[in-house]
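#structure-requests
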Amino acid sequence: MQVAVVTGPGQVELREEPEPRLAPDEVLVEVAACGLCTMERRLYLGEKPIYPVAPGHEVSGTVVAAGELVDGLPGAPAVGERVTVDLLTRCGACRQCRRGRSALCRVPQGGALSDGTISMGAGLAEYVKVRAVQAWSVGDADLALASMGEPLACVAHSVRLSGFRAGDRVAVTGGGFMGRLHQALTRRLGAAEVGVVDVSDARLADAAAAGASWTATPEEAAERPGAADIVFVTAGVPGALELATRLCDDGGTIVLYGAFPKDHLASVAPDAIHHHEQSIVGVYSQEPEDWRTAAGLLASGALAADLEPLVTARFGLADVAGALELASSSPVYRVLVGG
């Protein structure tokens, strides 16, 4: 089978890899679509110089084979079934995994191809194999949208840890792909209103068209003190936390979802956090409980109208270089590869 390998900045090639051999508890999935996220962009641009590497972890497809332990097992993904795939590795044995916080598993992520090439998902391929427990049925969902299962699970994780409840007022800072998923999910879960903050007029217009209750630039948002019960920071830029504390009402929660530069420090008044009972929560990745939520939403079609506009472009695997170039050089939501 073919798998895409990034060999250096701006360089990608298709390599031949032996067809995966299944363990008894695994399934083989023919890849229909694999989304390109920030990690793939950074690898391709040279911002994350790990070469050679086989990336791609936002995968959907159809089960084409199943190991003997799960073949025909009630509830397990069956041959012919459409699935969204969790390619995260979890050891299950470290302290974090045993506490149910497997998003923070202490065992390093990734694996290797047959020639030793580092694998970070290796979903830019014709097939992937995965433990059956990590393949989630999506019913008759569009497989292009089902490739958003992984980012949607990350957002479900974010919303779950935020303590969100129906009727809460939400603000999302950052109107990119992950911000739009936060907007869509909280609206569908019953937010009283959802506002979106961004520096881009085009993204604010897109958010408004998708049903945002209000949109604002960061300067305009600063004039809305206490506008939200929960603030999701999806773009980790200087000033984002300070703006979030201004937007957040008494008793509210600020969720740091987007990654910040590792050397960035923010200025927050602890006494203000204390007196106004604000909570600041960090969230990272996703866990099996969140995949159940994401897969259920995809299967139900409840978010289909919100997800369809987020498919910026689709490419075949043979044109993976063009897909990476577009995702790395232009403002996009999601570029998909495969099918």
